[in-house]
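ARCHIVE CARD
CATEGORY: sequence design from structure
SOURCE FIELD: tokenized fold
FIELD CONTENT:
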């Protein structure tokens, strides 16, 4: 079985309170190099057989119409998961 990965992120203009909270805590644990954090979602879709361009197109459609909220989120990646 193969898997397709879909990554969804909040649009840049949308506030990300969870990302902001994480960014504020990083220095507390000694990690001062990071200037910003944005939180997103990852989906893994399992398919029978190999991942084809047609399956990737179907996964992109699912991502744009079901897995994300297009008002506030962008689909940033749809790709085959390499094992």
């Amino acid at each position: 079985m193969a898997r397709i990965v879909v990554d969804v992120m909040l649009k840049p203009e949308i506030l990300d309170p969870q990302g902001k909270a994480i960014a504020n805590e990083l220095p507390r644990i000694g990690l001062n190099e990071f200037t910003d954090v944005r939180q997103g979602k990852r989906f893994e879709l399992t398919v029978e057989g190999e991942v084809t361009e047609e399956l990737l197109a179907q996964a992109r459609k699912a991502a744009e119409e079901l897995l994300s909220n297009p008002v506030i989120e962008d689909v940033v990646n749809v790709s085959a998961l390499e094992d």
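CARD ANNOTATION: The chain has two helices and three strands. The mean pLDDT is 96.
SHELF: design records, drawer C
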